[in-house]
Design a protein that fits this description.
It is built from no helices and 16 strands. The chain is mainly beta and about 190 residues long.
Length: about 190
């Protein structure tokens, strides 16, 4: 489906110069002289390259619709991750760097969404929020009541995040996977 250059939004998947790109950021600019344009930061879903491209309203670009399929994470095999198709029980091996910063949050048995392009997996989407346990939390500094009195803490998967002062070691919390931020105590 063709879309105008000014209709591009973050999260869109575009076919551009023979590659598949995911839009990370956009900035609409209207200079005093000349036509308005959209400055688009994109990441190549196949090889991970990043690029900035300027699209004018007259430019059209192909918006790609990816197929999504439910998979379950089974185990890690070296630097490969093994997933199972929940419908056919077929297994697929994918490189662990396909997950990027979300990799430490992948847990055994976790249900994930694979995005496929021409039957080829190009991205793995974890649930937005997961539960994790605090293994180490810094002590609250007395008198630290300024605006944000969050303190650093270490999760059981090795990720450091900021948590409110009342959270202590051993507490189960809910974490936003993609923001790597504290959401609340686990219920």
């Amino acid at each position: 489906m063709k879309i105008s250059g000014v209709d591009i939004r973050p999260g869109n998947i575009l076919e551009y110069e023979g590659g598949i790109w995911k839009v990370a950021k956009i900035q609409h600019t209207q200079p005093g002289k000349g036509g308005a344009y959209m400055q688009v930061e994109m990441k190549n879903l196949i090889d991970g390259r990043k690029t900035n491209v300027r699209f004018r309203s007259a430019d059209t670009v192909e918006k790609v619709r990816l197929d999504t399929k439910d998979y379950q994470f089974l185990y890690e095999d070296g630097d490969m991750l093994v997933f199972m198709d929940k419908d056919t029980y077929e297994q697929i091996n994918l490189p662990s760097d396909l997950l990027g910063d979300a990799r430490p949050f992948l847990q055994d048995g976790m249900e994930v969404m694979l995005e496929l392009w021409d039957e080829r997996p190009i991205s793995v989407e974890l649930p937005q929020q997961v539960e994790a346990t605090i293994v180490e939390a810094d002590a609250v500094v007395k008198g630290q009541t300024a605006s944000s009195s969050y303190k650093p803490a270490m999760l059981d998967n090795g990720v450091r995040i900021m948590v409110p002062p009342h959270i202590e070691s051993g507490t189960r919390i809910v974490v936003d996977v993609y923001e790597q931020a504290y959401v609340g105590k686990a219920g």
